[in-house]
Automatic annotation (TrEMBL):
NHL repeats lie at residues 240-277. GO terms for molecular function: oxidoreductase activity. Keywords: Repeat. It comes from Rotaria sordida. PROSITE patterns: NHL. Residues 323-667 form the Enoyl reductase (ER) domain. PANTHER family: ALCOHOL DEHYDROGENASE RELATED (PTHR11695), RETICULON-4-INTERACTING PROTEIN 1, MITOCHONDRIAL (PTHR11695:SF294). Transmembrane segments: none annotated. One of its GO terms (cellular component) is mitochondrion. It holds the Pfam family ADH_N. SUPFAM superfamilies: GroES-like, NAD(P)-binding Rossmann-fold domains, NHL repeat. This is Enoyl reductase (ER) domain-containing protein. It comes from the Eukaryota.
Length: 673
């Protein structure tokens, strides 16, 4: 995939411009000189000077004084040197497979040359580091900056590096031997104020040390004078579009000696020139809409192959364990998982949801039982459309609308996700993608508890008590149990009574004898009453614990019938980290309670349940409960990453963790068609 680059150089009294036309994408402009003649003209038909069949998704490049080109060959995880007139390039960094070793790179994004130290400076993308690599005969690199979501970089005449941190929406300057750096642009959040950047991509520094930044997320180029607290808009500022006053996903940027800005206008497939002080630009190359194609986060039209599936996508990436704002970035250059095993399907994601297990997995609370390798794409619940299938897939076909759960494997906070066919079922016809994404994990968990783990399965006349009726698993359990004719009672805070009423039930607090009225629901406010005392000796068949805590088991024994079951999905301490010690403690508690079930006169069973996704169960849920309208989703908030970018993901996690949501929280990834 060839990115457009421009090398402008002086030749006697004339200025020559060699243009490499964009085959697929329009990407960084960088030259060995910024002295561009004001009357320079640009050839409209480009000449391929590097690549052909030897590069894969090349990104940033650097052209030295000898017109040798250094290319970040992203998908081959290497830097390639291409001398003027050569028919083949030479690998000068990486090329040892993807990895995080000193001799490896992982999706390099950009490269420059440090002439003083005769070395390459490389943005090593997915390793979140900047690497110095010997320019000649180097076999390994040295990490000089760590923990940075590096996308673009450059250097001034003093040898200071300027590095774009896309995840933190800032540009930092690093003096020689400096590891922390100083923020010189952005760093104040991700909005469109003049003191902010949103998904900056590339940076240019002029002779006065002013910093020019292509602001990909805000469709403009900004200039930050040295020492300034905010920037000024020097190109666009009129919003996304294709007029001469607009840009769409700007990428590479250079500025000449007159202050003229040259910017690759990615979304419009063109290079534009903006003279200093003007509010409009002119097209100098490209702009042919029939030929221009590029990476568009919202539409994922990048580098489509013959089957129409892009080679790269936008995805949330988790780089370590921690809080969402610290460890998640939103990247637009993640490889689509196109390679399928015989039983796998590839799904274009329209919506995904979050469950408590997602933020427990994110912060490492469950790393002893489900350890990730990084970078990792989070998310498990999903709704979307099948776009490719493995050779042995029979049940699903391309074009099927599906919903499913990846059962801890993650990957759904992305434009495409790959998973085993068994993880997906046909989407209910009466639900939107957003509604369908709210169902899989929580609804199937409760289905398994009620109809698989409960013995005998819940049916007409069964008495079911749900601890935590306002949780997602709780309200799905209430609806399914009611649908089969069971008598149901539950706990909730007074604040969430309104949520339960949205399910269509009349809340009753005086008596649990509501089994003759399926429209009534007996609810106990757990802040003021103990359900074990209120319902003592009421002979319930099942207590289903959706919230956790030892007190649930203690109270349950007072209301269960002889041989009744207590099934929990949360355990005694749902907030605790799953360490070896806590796992042993939990195991001891479960074993002691199981033994107590055998020898105690009441014979109450204690069961700890974990979900195992099954397409047969998702199909049963669809046909018996969802398409019949007997069970319906409750949606609290839809977060749209097309509109809010990575901030949508941060807010998704924060609201889920706060416990204040009254319904499911959804991440909208693509519009429903």
């Amino acid at each position: 995939m060839c990115r457009l680059q421009i090398n402008s150089y002086k030749c006697g009294t004339t200025t020559s411009a060699t243009t490499i036309a964009a085959q697929q994408l329009v990407y960084p402009l960088r030259g060995s000189s910024i002295d561009i003649h004001p009357n320079a003209r640009w050839q409209q038909n480009g000449l391929t000077v590097a690549g052909g069949n030897q590069l894969s998704n090349p990104l940033g490049l650097y052209v030295d004084d000898d017109e040798t080109i250094y290319i970040a060959d992203q998908l081959n995880h290497r830097i390639v040197e291409w001398k003027l007139g050569a028919t083949n390039g030479q690998v000068v960094a990486g090329g040892n497979g993807q990895g995080n070793g000193d001799h490896q790179l992982s999706y390099p994004q950009d490269v420059i040359v440090d002439n003083e130290k005769d070395s390459l400076i490389i943005c090593d993308g997915l390793n979140n580091r900047v690497v110095r690599w010997p320019r000649r005969n180097g076999t390994s690199g040295e990490t000089i900056i760590s923990n940075i979501d590096c996308l673009g970089l450059t250097m001034d005449e003093n040898g200071s590096f300027y590095v774009v941190d896309e995840g933190k929406h800032e540009v930092r300057r690093y003096g020689r031997e400096e590891s922390q750096g100083t923020v010189v642009a952005g760093g104040n959040g991700s909005r469109n104020r003049l003191d902010q950047l949103y998904r900056p991509h590339y940076v240019f520094v002029d002779r006065d040390h002013s910093v020019y930044v292509s602001n990909y997320g805000n469709d403009r180029v900004m200039k930050w004078v040295e020492g300034a607290k905010q920037g000024i808009v020097v190109a666009c500022g009129q919003g996304k579009g294709n007029s001469f006053t607009q840009l769409s996903y700007p990428q590479g940027v250079v500025v000449d000696q007159m202050g003229t800005v040259y910017v690759s206008d990615g979304g419009n497939g063109r290079v534009m020139r903006w003279s200093k002080g003007t509010t409009y630009g002119s097209v100098i190359v490209g702009g042919n809409e029939k030929k221009a194609r590029f990476i568009n986060m919202a539409e994922s039209t990048t580098s489509k192959t013959e089957d129409g599936i892009p080679s790269v996508m936008t995805a949330a990436q988790q780089n370590s364990y921690g809080e969402a704002r610290d460890v998640i970035t939103l990247r637009s250059d993640v490889l689509v998982p196109r390679q399928l095993s015989c039983n796998q399907v590839l799904v274009r994601v329209h919506a995904a949801s979050i469950n408590p297990i997602d933020w427990k997995l994110l912060n490492g609370n469950m790393s002893h039982v489900n350890r990730y390798s990084f970078p990792h794409i989070p998310g498990n619940d999903v709704a979307g459309v099948v776009v490719n299938v493995g050779s042995s897939v029979k049940r699903l076909k391309i074009g099927d609308k599906v919903y499913g759960n990846l059962s801890g494997d993650g990957g759904t906070y992305a434009e495409f996700v790959r998973g085993n066919e068994s993880k997906f079922a046909l989407k209910p016809n009466n639900l939107t993608m957003i509604e369908a994404a709210a169902m899989p994990l929580a609804c199937e968990t409760s289905y398994q508890v009620l109809f698989n783990k409960a013995s005998p399965p819940i049916g007409p006349g069964s008495k079911v008590f749900v601890c935590g009726g306002a949780t997602a698993t709780g309200w799905y359990a209430i609806q399914m149990a009611k649908a089969v004719g069971a008598h149901v009672a539950t706990t909730s805070s007074q604040r969430n009574f309104g949520l339960l009423e949205k399910l269509g039930y009349k809340i009753v607090q005086e008596s649990d004898e509501t089994k003759d009225d399926p429209q009534q629901l007996f609810v106990i406010d757990y802040n003021s009453k103990d359900f074990g005392q209120v319902l003592q000796d009421k002979n319930y068949d099942l207590v289903y614990d959706c919230v956790g805590g030892e007190q649930q088991w203690v109270a349950a024994q007072r209301i269960l019938k002889r041989g009744g079951q207590f099934i929990t999905i949360a355990g005694d301490d749902p907030e605790a980290s799953v360490s070896l010690k806590s796992a042993l403690t939990m195991g001891t508690h479960i074993m002691s309670r199981k033994l107590g079930s055998v020898f105690c006169a009441s014979h109450h069973s204690y069961i700890f349940h974990l979900l195992h996704t099954s397409h047969q169960e998702l199909d049963d849920i669809r046909t018996k409960y969802l398409e019949t309208g007997k069970v319906k989703p409750l949606i609290d908030t839809v977060f749209d990453w097309q509109k809010d970018g990575v901030e949508a993901i941060y807010k998704l996690y924060e609201k889920s963790k706060s416990g204040k949501a009254q319904g499911k929280l959804i991440l909208k990834i693509a519009d429903e068609q």
